[in-house]
Amino acid sequence: MIRILLDQCVPRSAATILRNGGWDIVHTGEIGLSHAKDAFILEYATNENRTIVTLDADFHSILEK
């Protein structure tokens, strides 16, 4: 199953709805990352083997570095 991390810009309620549907999903606000820099969120997701879902248009620029 895909493990998902929802970024700050995605409503926290989405995590609850999807979790109730059986998804392995957490929201940055649920794990103390609500004010974390994108680079730290990316590092967390990598370490936890999670795919990030975000609405940030510039998030991909971290991957290009």
Notes on the protein architecture:
The structure is a single chain. This protein is α/β, with parallel strands linked by helices. It contains three helices and three strands; from the N terminus they run βαβαβα. Strand 1, helix 1 and strand 2 form a beta-alpha-beta unit. A three-stranded parallel sheet has the order 2-1-3, with helices on both faces.
What fraction strand? 15-25%
SSE topology string = EHEHEH
Strand order of the largest sheet: 2-1-3
| CA(first)-CA(last) distance | 29 Å
Note the main sheet. Answer: 3 strands, parallel
Key terms:
alpha/beta, 3 helices
Brief write-up:
This protein is of the alpha/beta class and 65 residues long. It is built from three helices and three strands.
Strand and helix layout:
Blueprint: E1 3-6, H1 12-20, E2 24-27, H2 38-47, E3 51-53, H3 60-63
Parallel strand pairs: 1-2, 1-3
